[in-house]
Design brief:
Elements: E1 2-6, E2 12-16, H1 23-29, E3 49-52, H2 57-60, H3 65-72, E4 81-83, E5 96-99
Parallel strand pairs: 1-5
Antiparallel strand pairs: 1-2, 3-4, 3-5
Bound molecules: FE2/S2 (inorganic) cluster.
């Protein structure tokens, strides 16, 4: 299943991910720049912030209350923001597009 990571400069990197792998893990394992993931997916750092492409927001779904709290503390976050460690690849998300912020928090 494919995910496209779009850098803040507009460069696209397409990666094939297995089901259950998070978008954050996919970026780290494939050396995609733009996601730091300091806590390694533990939902405590907020340095895996991405903007879900507007076409995918409904399919990805909303963040949990805790994730939402963390997102609201990130400068530049908006209603399409998610922590990429909280999005797991599944057949529903095949073709997902996420945009990386200019810098991580
Ligand atoms: Fe730390 Fe997602 S990797 S919050």
């Amino acid at each position: 299943m494919k995910v496209t990571y779009v850098s803040s400069e507009g460069d696209e990197t397409v990666i094939d991910l297995k089901g259950g792998v998070t978008i954050q893990e996919g970026a780290i394992q494939n050396l995609v720049d733009g996601i730091d993931a300091d806590c390694g997916g533990g939902m405590s750092c907020a340095t895996c912030h991405v903007f879900v492409d507007s076409k995918w927001v409904d399919r990805v779904g909303p963040p949990t209350a805790l994730e939402s709290d963390m997102l609201s503390a990130i400068p530049g976050s908006n209603e399409t923001s998610r922590l990429s460690c909280q999005i797991s690849m599944s057949s529903d998300l095949d073709g997902l597009v996420v945009h990386m912020p200019e810098e991580q928090y």
